[in-house]
Structure formats: structure tokens, C-alpha cells
Design brief:
- This protein is mainly alpha-helical and 123 residues long.
- The chain has one domain.
């Protein structure tokens, strides 16, 4: 039950921070048709989860439920990424759609690796 509470608390905090960063980013960078807010949040979340995963490989404790499952799960948003991709497709904005999908996957993967490398360089 303790783990469920930790996931709940981390998920709430991650969701709120996702909303704040995404909203601010979307207002800061008004790029037509490109969902910059979700993109920035997801890439940042990939870097964070890479860092945390690297840390918790060696230190298995209850904080992984709070930070990885809860916070990162609430912070990043694959469902919004998918819905925004569908919207770009519906609006026949195929260039932005292709760019969004490719950049999200490639930079997201790279951000996970970067997060892991940041953690290992601190040791």
C-alpha cells in the first residue's frame, strides 16, 4: 500500500509540473501546428527517467515508485503525443506530423542515454 501512495503522490506532482511546463513552453514558442509543449516535456522526461533509472539500478529502494513510476509517469505523456499526432494527421499537416514523431522518438531515446551518462559521470 505504501508503494501505491508513493506512485499517487509522484504522479500528481509530475502531472502538475507537466501542465505548467507545457503551458509555458507553448506560450513561449508559438510554432504553428507543432505541439512544442508536449515535445519539450517528453524529451525532458526522457532525460530524467534515464538519470533515475541509472541511479536505481544500483540503489533499489522505495523512491523509485515515487520518482520513476509516479513522477515520470505523470510528467511524460504518450497519450497526448499520440492524440496530437492524430490531430496533425487529420489536419493534413504531414510535415509537422513526421517531424514530431521522428524528433520525439530519436531525441527521446537520446535523452534517456544522456540522463544515464549524466548520472554515471557524477559517480
Amino acid at each position: 500500500m505504501k508503494n501505491v501512495l508513493l506512485v499517487f503522490l509522484g504522479g500528481g506532482a509530475g502531472s502538475i509540473l507537466r501542465y505548467l511546463i507545457s503551458d509555458y513552453t507553448q506560450k513561449l514558442w508559438k510554432i504553428n501546428a507543432f505541439p512544442m509543449g508536449t515535445f519539450v516535456v517528453n524529451i525532458l522526461g526522457c532525460c530524467i527517467i534515464g538519470f533515475l533509472t541509472s541511479y536505481f539500478l544500483k540503489a533499489d529502494n522505495y523512491l523509485k515508485y515515487l520518482l520513476i513510476t509516479g513522477f515520470c509517469g505523470g510528467f511524460t505523456t504518450f497519450s497526448t503525443f499520440s492524440a496530437e499526432s492524430f490531430s496533425l494527421w487529420q489536419n493534413q499537416n504531414y510535415t509537422a506530423l513526421l517531424l514530431y514523431i521522428i524528433l520525439s522518438v530519436v531525441l527521446g531515446f537520446g535523452a534517456v542515454i544522456l540522463g544515464m551518462k549524466i548520472h554515471t559521470s557524477w559517480l
